[in-house]
Amino acid sequence: MLEKRNFPVKELHLFGSERSAGRKVPTKWGDIAIEDFSVDKAAKLDVVFVSVSGDFSKQYCDAMAKDGAVVIDNSSAFRYEPDVCLCVPEINAETARKSKRRVIANPNCTTAIGLMALYPLHQKYGLKKVIMSTYQAASGAGAEGMAELFNGVKEVVNGPEGTVAKNEVFAHPLPFNLIPHIDVFQENLYTKEEMKVTWECQKIMDLPTLPVSCTAVRIPTLRAHAESITIETERPVDLAGARAALAAAPGVLLKDEPAAKRYPMPLTASTAYNVEVGRVRNSVVFGDHGLDFFVCGDQLLRGAALNAVLVAEAISQPSGTPFSPKL
Amino acid sequence: MLEKRNFPVKELHLFGSERSAGRKVPTKWGDIAIEDFSVDKAAKLDVVFVSVSGDFSKQYCDAMAKDGAVVIDNSSAFRYEPDVCLCVPEINAETARKSKRRVIANPNCTTAIGLMALYPLHQKYGLKKVIMSTYQAASGAGAEGMAELFNGVKEVVNGPEGTVAKNEVFAHPLPFNLIPHIDVFQENLYTKEEMKVTWECQKIMDLPTLPVSCTAVRIPTLRAHAESITIETERPVDLAGARAALAAAPGVLLKDEPAAKRYPMPLTASTAYNVEVGRVRNSVVFGDHGLDFFVCGDQLLRGAALNAVLVAEAISQPSGTPFSPKL
């Protein structure tokens, strides 16, 4: 992503475990050998991207940030700490720029994708309620999840009738199935994945009391998450105005021509930088004070690596500059 | 389905096109030869099940019903006519029994599946708003749809990387994809499939002004539809009470033990007569006046053949009898 975004890299260090150390990775800045991770070395850099685990992040992020490195952490370790900016840079880059604590959290993928549409609609009409049902790809469970789905499907279609795939990564076999269970169940019977959407939408948009409810469902797709979203708004929504707000929003591709069969889908949203938004219509339930719409975004890009690199771009811009990157 | 339900068949006639006429079908009532369709012959029977097309139904159903046959029609031709009962027999069998017009409409599959959970909750708490997002199987587009998905998936997993399956039945390739477009788009930008859920929930529960909004999405599963449903209720909902109402409802299997990873899924709901209901929780958005829950039911059974045969069972029971079949 740093290569593709032409990030102004002066010096690139790649840290890994002892096991990976020494292996060379070809980059446009030369072949770089992976180094055994060292807090002290990392702390001397300008920007550190961390994508290991919550435990690793808790142990090392603040130590790396103490000498001035900005640490952009992809885990959920710091997301809900009040002095940590949870950042979708098109929305709250300024909070990241002004944050004293130099650890910045990259949000949950489902949240980041949905917010690309929710925030411009909030700015124009004011969000009152958000109800979301998700269609999440196997990549949310990592490369192992994608492999389990792909190989499982292969086993089913090539095997005798009635073959059921094995599962280790997912709670149940995913081929030709869906699983309404992502991450662990909470006391309120929502999953942690679902509550992440609630908590992170509230924090990133700075709307701490906004009611957001999510049902998170894993489906047999590979790497783009889709979301069916219903909103109630403070002010009346005219459809043309909503479309215009979405079309103008950074990070959004308005794809909403039903007659031409153009709407968001994993087939087209996978590998795309922009989040596709479509099926926009005034809600049967909330009338002109609400919308139903559908989004689809690449889980590995806006949901992870792209957002992290955009955070790094945004914080290197001067305070007060709205962040509207070319994608 | 007539065989499996031990329907009291005295005489079975199978009608088809000229092309099928003569072919013998093994049944537990003997090998029955398909007859070339004749309105007059069909009209002399007690019950006629029709599953051809809306146009066929419009042309022949009333003619078959005029001599006293009850015609149970699986098409959408008559669903919205005020003097036709649109029937989920556990809900409105009495309307079907009392209907003067002897054409009874079998509902849209998505609606019938969702209503199994919605109606008992309505009886206990009163529905105020219904918001639904669907996860619909390929079988909704018939055997051709199932074949296109299965063969398409086979092509993709066995082909070179980047293989995209062909599509004829669906608007786009369905393997590893989803399509937020089922049936044709209406003027209000909902699809007809989505509006069927609105219109049919209102008609079957006799709640003509109930706001119901649906987003209907085709996903790569084979024959069970799932639905993520949010409701707002007139009266406060206690979770134990809601669970008890669902557990007691005919046609429902309450499958709601998150800790044991038991919740509705196509893998378990396919070929089952009962609709699975789970993930029941008080809604973050509507608090104690609402629920989020998830349902999954076999599209070919409750969504079609089973419901049709249950209608026939229900109307042969005396008026005033609640219909609570053993499934």
Tell me about this structure.
By secondary structure, chain A is of the alpha/beta class. Chain A folds into two domains: 15-107 and 305-315, NAD(P)-binding Rossmann-like Domain (Rossmann fold), CATH 3.40.50; 110-298, Dihydrodipicolinate Reductase, domain 2 (2-Layer Sandwich), CATH 3.30.360. Chain A has nine helices and 14 strands. In chain A, the strands form four sheets. The first copy, chain A, has a six-stranded mixed beta sheet. In chain A, strands 5-6-8-7 form a four-stranded parallel beta sheet, with helices on both faces. In chain A, helix 4 (109-125) crosses helix 6 and helix 4 (109-125) crosses helix 9. The longest helix of chain A is centred in the middle third of the chain and has 17 residues, at 109-125. Chain A is globular and about 55 Å long. The relative contact order of chain A is 0.15. The mean pLDDT of chain A is 97. Chains A and B meet through strand 9, helix 5, strand 10, strand 11 and strand 13 of A and strand 9, helix 5, strand 10, strand 11 and strand 13 of B.
What general outline of chain A do the C-alpha atoms trace?
globular
pLDDT average of chain A, as an integer? 97
Major sheet summary line of chain A: 6 strands, mixed
Distance between the termini of chain A: 12 Å
Quick one: how many beta strands of chain A? 14
Count of domains of chain A: 2
Strand order of the largest sheet of chain A: 10-9-11-14-13-12
What is the CATH first-level class name of the largest domain in chain A? Alpha Beta
